[in-house]
Amino acid sequence: MKRFFNNKNFTVGFILTSIVVIAALLSLLWTPYDGNRMNARARLHGPSLSHPLGTDHYGRDTLSRIMVGAVNSIIVGLVTVAIGLSVGVVLGLMSAYYGRWVDESIMRFSDLLFGFPAVLSAILITSILGPSMVNAMLAIGIFYIPIFARLTRAVSLSIWEREFIAAARAGGLSEWAITWRHVLPNILSSLLIQGTIQFAVAILAEAGLSYLGLGTQPPHASWGRMLNDAQTYMNLSPWIAIFPGLAIAWAVLGFNLLGDGLRDTLDPKMVRVR
């Protein structure tokens, strides 16, 4: 742990993401107000002691909704990265192991998925299944599959050329046993780094999809949806857009710094020679 916290990026990222996670966990037990409770008398109130971050056009407490929105953002990040990892890693390992036409087929399939970014995939999926957070997560997760597949393939190919793989073969291990016992454990650090960075991208993508009306649907709280609701009242009450925007920037910056810190610490090529 000392190695990690000696890295400034990791330390700052850990603090920022910890605050987001704590806010999300706290919202499961307590929030200053019910995030969906409307109060016509408190519409568009500025920050005050009773409402530290003000209220929106329905009189709902902004701080409470940001805390609840943090839960949705973390769920989206976890689910989408899990989809990308579970499918992409298997495809990447198969591509590196079999090679030839299997490798070519999987890589061309990845190119096909790359042709449909998360937003376009969400539009396609929601036009068929309807807009929802689940469909947005499915679209982002599908977009992540080729990212993890290509990373897994590239790192696995370099591992297969190492001497300890030849020693494992000489010891009588099958190719798949070598894959699971030796190749996969040696690429976990790269997958962890990529997963942390893509977690940040997922939060940003979900906010963008919710802003377009394709993600989390009202009355459920979402940072992107809060920005969408706030755009009409920007001149009158700018804080209802500023605080959700800051929450998105905070979370994305935190996970990006955390990923950079993990890369600097775990990747031997990034370690500074002292």
What report would you give on this structure?
73% of the residues lie in helices and 0% in strands. By secondary structure, the chain is mainly α. The chain has one domain: MetI-like fold, CATH 1.10.3720. Helix 5 packs across helix 6 and helix 9 packs antiparallel against helix 10. The model has no long low-confidence stretch (mean pLDDT 88).
Using the 3D structure, state the CATH architecture. Answer: Orthogonal Bundle
Radius of gyration: 22 Å
Question: Could you name the CATH homologous superfamily?
Answer: MetI-like
Helix content: over 70%
Task: Sum up the overall morphology in one term.
Answer: elongated
Number of domains: 1
Major sheet attributes: none
Unreliable residue runs: none
Counted by DSSP, the helix tally is 10
Look at the structure and give the mean pLDDT: 88
H/E topology pattern: HHHHHHHHHH
Q: Would you tell me which CATH topology applies?
A: MetI-like fold
C-alpha end-to-end distance: 20 Å
What is the CATH C level class, in words? Mainly Alpha
Residues in β-strands, percent = under 5%
Secondary structure category? mainly alpha
Number of E-state strands = 0
Which structural traits does this protein have?
274 residues, mainly alpha, MetI-like fold, 10 helices
Summarize the structure in short:
The chain has 274 residues and is mostly helical.
Question: What's the arrangement of secondary structure elements?
Answer:
Blueprint: H1 2-5, H2 8-29, H3 62-98, H4 100-114, H5 118-129, H6 133-160, H7 163-170, H8 175-211, H9 223-230, H10 239-266
Helix pairs in contact: 2-3, 2-10, 3-4, 3-6, 3-8, 3-10, 4-6, 5-6, 6-8, 8-9, 8-10, 9-10
